[in-house]
């Protein structure tokens, strides 16, 4: 599983029933990139699509039980990588780093960040 696929699963865990376009926005990628990310997850049975009951043509994405199990299996590995990444940071540096990441995310959200056009 790729990092992008893991991220997609975790976003769907927190926000079930979003569209692929919304998932792309939340992951800061183009819709086409998200389609390529989601397709293998659909084929593997980790994600399912359901029609939006309010908008017949829209499809909503949901994590399956297998998808939730995949996250549960991968979370310790991801935590291990994160721990390696932060191994040389003391507690204050970790807190500062987390705060800076949070502020960067909020800044992007407030500015309605969209993924860059292809080729940029």
List keywords for this structure.
HTH_MarR-typ; 120 residues; mainly alpha; 5 helices; two-stranded antiparallel ribbon; DNA-binding transcription factor activity
Total helical segments = 5
- The portion of residues assigned to helices is 55-70%
Low-confidence stretches: 115-120
What integer value in Å does the Rg equal? 16 Å
Residue fraction in strands? 5-15%
Q: What is the element string, with H for helices and E for strands?
A: HHHEEHH
Distance from first to last alpha carbon: 25 Å
Q: Give the overall pLDDT as a whole number.
A: 89
Q: Looking at this structure, what is the CATH superfamily?
A: Winged helix-like DNA-binding domain superfamily/Winged helix DNA-binding domain
**Backbone structural class:** mainly alpha
Q: What's the CATH topology name?
A: Arc Repressor Mutant, subunit A
Shape: globular
Number of domains: 1
Task: Please state the second-level CATH architecture.
Answer: Orthogonal Bundle
DSSP, total strands: 2
Major sheet: 2 strands, antiparallel
Q: Name the strands of the widest sheet in spatial order.
A: 1-2
CATH class: Mainly Alpha
InterPro entries: HTH_MarR-typ (IPR000835), MarR/SlyA-like (IPR039422), WH-like_DNA-bd_sf (IPR036388), WH_DNA-bd_sf (IPR036390)
Protein name: MarR family transcriptional regulator
GO molecular function: DNA-binding transcription factor activity
Domain HTH marR-type: 1-106
């Amino acid at each position: 599983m790729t990092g992008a696929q893991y991220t997609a699963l975790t976003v769907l865990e927190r926000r079930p029933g979003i569209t692929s376009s919304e998932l792309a926005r939340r992951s800061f990628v183009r819709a086409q990139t998200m389609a390529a990310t989601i397709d293998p997850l659909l084929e593997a049975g980790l994600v399912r699509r359901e029609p939006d009951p309010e908008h017949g043509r829209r499809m909503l994405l949901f994590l399956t039980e297998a998808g939730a199990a995949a996250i549960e299996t991968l979370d310790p590995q991801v935590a291990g990588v994160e721990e390696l990444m932060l191994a040389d940071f003391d507690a204050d540096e970790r807190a500062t780093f987390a705060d800076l990441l949070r502020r960067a995310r909020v800044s992007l959200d407030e500015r309605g960040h969209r993924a860059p056009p292809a080729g940029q």
